């Protein structure tokens, strides 16, 4: 019996390869960043070839560092940044354009045009999503409409399109020599092209966007044996595909309706398991596909997507030079007692949930001569907690579920100041798990179930262990006052872009 399960975790800023043991503990890991391209305001791109090269490098490095042989690995799971869109030539294996990243806003005019008839929510019944620049379908349309050699490749039948999971699986299974062109419902449900109830591409939606079905991947369950890997991981079954936030939900073992997790990464994403029926949102949340195990009904979620959380800390580091490394923000923020009366609304590419305002831009409000960089650092951390509170409030109204506690994961959960403030502003306990790599762990869990490495979801639930819990310690009056200030600050970010 093989001893390990592996996962590729391809994120917005970096790629990791992680090997887990039977207990779900990390045995070995390697990570590499890839470049972020900002060709003009509002545009964000990645180089798909660089991502594929980084993926191979981290696999090789992890195996070399750990001394683990591929034959000791039972299965491979894949989790990925969602909505980031790639179109490539299947005859050469080369991308036809840089990947358009989920944060990119170039499709704003396409979304506005589509919203003219029927409004921003005209596709919600079928897709669970508002018309927004976030999603992949309009990105494919933009590439076909604006890049002549892309539309040429589509017409000649050479083009394949997909999200990053699809690009990686295609390359891992042979690329131009017969690579498998697939995705799963957690990624397909983020395109505005999939019907949530049938979990298939929808003809009316495809026609609306002008996207031919033959360039799109086949939609499969999230957990099943898809194919064997080629190359470095030769012969290892690829057995799961999950968008990163759904993978984190799975890694946090939120298998029951009413269980929720929040991931603090580049953006911030809260998912609530709503069971086997999609729950429509009246309050700016996304109704999304959670995961589907082979032979079972799909599980659906309500999701609150926040575009900028950890990226705000990176902005303080890279653009303003207020800190030299992201880990310094906690010390700087702790140097002051409170936010000094300021709020930062990080609407760098508009606001996502629950507002969906692409006209919004970032603001810092409440500035006085008293404010110093400690207050700015503190306000940056607090912005993530306030945005999470807005999402939780919307979930409560949509689902009728009062969360008793929140499971958290992602890079920012090491920040104790943020976690305490999060518990305070939500007024519920916040719990960090022992294994913080829940996104990769979720992909590993789903792959392990597919090959029988783990027997059941109950077995996985037994392995989940809490590391630390923060309990609310703020007075109701202070909480209400701070949150009212935030709500006021958010309105100041509206209507900036005409």
Q: What report would you give on this structure?
A:
The protein has 498 residues and is an alpha+beta fold. The chain is built from 16 helices and 23 strands. It has helices spanning 48-66, 108-115, 124-127, 136-146, 148-155, 164-172, 185-188, 203-209, 244-251, 310-318, 329-333, 373-399, 416-426, 438-451, 457-463, 476-491, and strands spanning 4-10, 14-20, 26-33, 45-46, 73-80, 85-89, 99-100, 159-163, 182-184, 194-195, 200-201, 218-220, 223-228, 237-243, 260-264, 268-275, 286-291, 299-306, 343-345, 363-365, 406-409, 430-433, 466-470. The strands form seven sheets. Strands 17-18-16-15-21-22-23 form a seven-stranded mixed sheet. Strands 3-2-1-5-14-13 form a six-stranded mixed sheet, with helices on both faces. Strand 17 and strand 18 (299-306) form a beta hairpin. The mean pLDDT is 94.
Any descriptors?
alpha+beta; 16 helices; 6-stranded mixed β-sheet; 498 residues; 34% helix; 7-stranded mixed β-sheet
